[in-house]
Each structure stands twice: as structure tokens, then as C-alpha cells.
Amino acid sequence: MTRALRLLALAALLTGCAELQKTDPKPAAPAPQVTESALRQRAADQLALGLRQYDAGDNENAQKNLGASLEHGMLNKVDQSIARKYLAMIHCVSNREAQCRDEFRKAFEINPEFSLTAAEDGHPIWGPVYRSVRTQLITEREAAADASRPRILLTRSEQLLADGMLKYDGGDYAEAQRLYELALKEGLKDKADQVKALKHVAFSLCLRDKYRDCRATFVKIYDVDPDFDLTPAEAGHPNWTKTFAGAKAQAKKALADKAAADKLAGDKAAKDKAAAERAAKDKAAAEKAAKEKATPVPPSVAAPKKN
Known about the structure:
By secondary structure, the chain is mainly α. It has 13 helices and no strands.
């Protein structure tokens, strides 16, 4: 009996150990560590995906992924400004101008070299907002810089030019043109300011589809500065690329024709001057010879004879 009881107790003990082994959980696998490089790659992937979705017209998902790419704080400054740029564009085309303006401002603050391409700058929806933000930031920076140096008062013509630039950057091209023309009429002393005013008059005309007047204004610039040219970004603007190219060719031909005519006139003047100098010299020589011929020669005095 005792042996049987011991066997029963041993069986119960083994059964209990088996149950304990079944219920005893295995240690959990360690959670994967999120590294900085993994976060950086995830941000880059989300940025790339957002840009592809934007190009495909899926602005809703593009906005989500572009925003998510910024949350990690792992994008470099240029990529951050790119993400902000496309977020601004999405907000602008969705009639959310305040958010559009805010994203453009953040892009400038993150990356001081940030700018839109010529084609992007010329967009009718976000172009004026972008230029307005840029002008505002430039004004703020200049105001901060002015605080540390003596204030220079602008002349009336210079102030009109500055006011015109504000209107231009704000998208009010008709008013900007009016102010530029007033500045020119008032008399801008600096040649660079004259060129700047004329150039932006031309821009304002082209942006309002007044291409003939735009071209004529571009041509006028060459009377002030024969070596004038647009920057690569300006020259590539879709609103005036062809108009400026035609105006430049016309102005350069006119300058070349004028230079050729001036050279011919100069050569003729030089020949006429040389001929006149030769005639004057010949006349003087002839008068001298005639005078010498007309003067009587005194008789020679004979030397006294020696004894």
C-alpha cells in the first residue's frame, strides 16, 4: 500500500511539473532597436513617395507622406525645404493660402538658398504667394540690418521703384508698372536702377499678355546698358522667354548697325581730317615758297683787296 501511495504521489508531482512547464511563458524577444540611420531612410522614402504621389495628382496622400517625412527631423535642409515647397503648393491649390504662406516661410527659414524654378515662380496660384513671402522676409531682414547702421533716405524716384517692387512681388502687375514708369519719369540717377525699372516694366507687360509693348520695353533697356542680359532663371521664364530672345536679337542688330555706321562715319571723318591737314600743309609750303621767291636777294659785298 505504501508503495502504491508513493507512486501516486510521484505521478501527481510529475503532472504538476508538466502543467507548470506548459503555463510558464517563454521570455519575449527583444524589441527591434530603431536606429538613426533607419529613421533617416524612412524619412527619405516618405519624401520620395510624397513627391511621386504629387506628380500623380494624389495631393491628399502626398500631403500625408510629405508631412510624415518632416516629423522624424532627419531630412537635410535642402530636402526639408523641398518637402515644405510641395506642401505649400498643395495648400495653395486647395485654397488654403495661410497654410501655403506658412510653408513657404518655413522653407526660406530652413534653407536661405531656397527658391522656386522659373516655371514654378510663374505659376498663377502659388507664384504671387511665394513672391509675397520672399519680399516680406527680405524686408524683415533688411529692417534688422538697418537697425545696426545709419538710415539712408531714398529719393522720390528710388522710393517709387521700391514701392513698385512690392506691388510686383504681390502680383499687382498693373500698379507695379505704373510705379516703375513714375520712377523713370521722376529720374533714377543710377543706371542699374533704370535697368531694373525697365526690366520689371517689361515683365509686368508680358505677365499681362501685352507682348508687343513688353518687347519694345526690353529693346529700350539696351539704350541704357548695351551689355544687358537676363539671369538664367529670368531668361527661362515661360511668360517672356521668346519675347526677350526676339527683343535681344533686335537690339543687338541695331547696336551692331549703329557701330558699323559710326565706324564708317569715323573713318570718313579721319580721312577728311587727314586730307585737310595735307591741304593746309601744302598750302603753307606753297605760300612760303612764293614768299621766298618774291623777296629780292641783296647784292654780295666784295672783299677788300690786299696791297
